[in-house]
């Protein structure tokens, strides 16, 4: 447990100070009163993937449980339709297309 929190996320916990006032995070989907997250809305959903193409955890995104579940489903659907990447490899632009004259 000692090395926990070593991962850098500057917005969160500080190691030195005992007191840390976390900013109140609200679920972005709740704010917009989104009922169902559209899996075709890639522009929005994309932000919930890390650079490793993994889904960001709630603790980072601030999504509420309800919307995180809906989000997970939407991401999986979008991935299935190749709208979103499963792995970082999928995000890389193929070399063949880059070198075409
Ligand atoms: Zn929500």
Q: Report the CATH C-level class of the domain at 37-89.
A: Few Secondary Structures
Count of discrete alpha- or pi-helical segments spanning 4 or more residues = 5
Q: Which percent range fits the helix content?
A: 25-40%
Topology pattern, helix = H, strand = E:
HHHHH
By oligomeric state, this entry counts as single chain
What's the overall average pLDDT, rounded? 82
State the secondary-structure class: mainly alpha
CATH architecture field of the domain at 37-89? Irregular
Stretches with pLDDT under 50, minimum 5 residues: none
Short description:
With 101 residues, the chain is mainly α. It has a domain at 37-89: Irregular (30s Ribosomal Protein S18).
Protein described:
- The protein is mainly alpha-helical.
- It has a domain at 37-89: Ribosomal protein S18 (30s Ribosomal Protein S18, Irregular), CATH 4.10.640.
- It is built from 5 helices and no strands.
- The protein has helices at 28-31, 42-45, 58-61, 65-80, 95-99.
- It starts with 27 loop residues before the first helix and ends with a helix.
Attribute tags:
101 residues, binds zinc ion, 5 helices, 30s Ribosomal Protein S18, mainly alpha
